[in-house]
Amino acid sequence: MAENNTTTTARPLKVIAGADAFGCPLKDTLVSYLRSLNIDVEDLGTSSYYSIGAEVGRRVSSSSATPAPTETRGLVSCGTGAGVAMFANKYPSVFAALCLTPDDALNSRSINNSNVLAVAGLSTSPDSAIEIVNTWLNTPFKSPCPASGSKPWPDDIQSFLDSSLTEMPKIGSQSGNDSDSSATCAICCLVKNRELNPIDLIPGGSMKILRESPTSAIVRFKAGSVEPAHHHTFGHDLVVLEGRKSVWNLTKRERYDLVVGDYLFTPAGDVHRVKYYEDTEFFIKWDGKWDLFFDEELEAAKTAIEKELENVSA
To answer: What residue stretches are annotated with the ChrR-like cupin domain (predicted)?
Structure first.
């Protein structure tokens, strides 16, 4: 296995990591390696390639929005590395690069200032991946690389690369032009400029009905909010538009950790409780009129969730 190297980043480094099932073993190896270098790693675990890629991308994008003493980068892995890279790259100021060789890593840092590394869990060995990670960590922007013939970039190319640092983050950001419907989520348009009404029975929640029969709504909950165990006479479909939440289906004894883009169907009568880790918004659809039947008190729900999360982290 490759020897530990010291990274050359100017600021302390934090790496946010995640993978799907095919990329998890390689991700775990690289997380352990990064921690052996005393690099702060936040391991988001395993989810679908599109969910985990998007969540890592979202967090790296958010961290780059304002100057910070710590540089935040991302590490993602799936079977090929391509899927997680595509979804990480959906966020502004994220430059995810799939690297299959150290030369790929060198080029991606030198030319693209890559801040998210994607690796292929099914085709890259642990030793090769560590070599790729070392190269990616220790290559400054505009370094000599295979694409430059391993020589310093000419002045005109260096000028172009410098300009790219300010021009690239603008791509994918909101233009502020409401007439540009191609850049706007259709579901979000339904609720835009509409005030959401508080959900009186659950603190921190608000909802706006969009249409009736079948009924659909946009629901928002503030970070830290909890929905006590409850059930409905209808089944409902939901898609997370923003934020992060966990749903415990107590009837089925299953837990679902949901992030942006995730979908969940809860059958009629299934008792479930919910915890919101961030300000969260989701689209929900059901047949019939709205009803809600509580199966526990709010404080009991908070205690049960805290106990389970403590057991998980122990």
So the answer is: 199-283
Report how far residue 110's alpha carbon sits from residue 130's, in angstroms, rounded to the nearest whole number: 19
The predicted structure's pLDDT at residue 182: 42
Name residues whose C-beta falls within 8 Å of residue 267's C-beta, 6 or more positions apart in sequence. 235
Q: Same structural domain for residues 37 and 166?
A: yes
- The verdict on 212 and 161 lying in the same domain is no
Question: What is the C-alpha to C-alpha distance for residues 286 and 308, in angstroms, rounded to an integer?
Answer: 29
251 and 196 share a domain? yes
One domain for residues 17 and 162:
yes
For residue 280, give both structure tokens.
Answer: 């969260």
Q: How far apart are CA 154 and CA 234, in angstroms?
A: 65
Question: Which amino acid is it at 132?
Answer: I
Report how far Cα 271 is from the mean position of its chain's Cα atoms.
Answer: 28
Collapsing DSSP states into helix, strand and coil, what is residue 308? Answer: helix
- Per-residue pLDDT, averaged over 307-313, amounts to 78
Distances (CA, A) of 189 to 17, 193, 264: 32, 9, 22
Dihedral sign (CA 298, 301, 307, 309): negative
Q: Locate tokens 């059958």: which residue?
A: 267
pLDDT, one tens digit per residue, over 170-217 is: 765 554 444 444 445 555 555 555 566 677 678 888 888 877 767 888
Q: Are 44 and 244 in contact (CB under 8 A)?
A: no
Residues 252-266 pLDDT 10s? 999 999 999 888 999
d(CA 159, CA 13) in angstroms, rounded, equals: 26
pTM of the model as a whole: 0.55
DSSP assignment, residue 48? -
- The rounded mean pLDDT for the chain is 85
- 225: domain range? 189-313
More confident residue, 195 or 221: 221
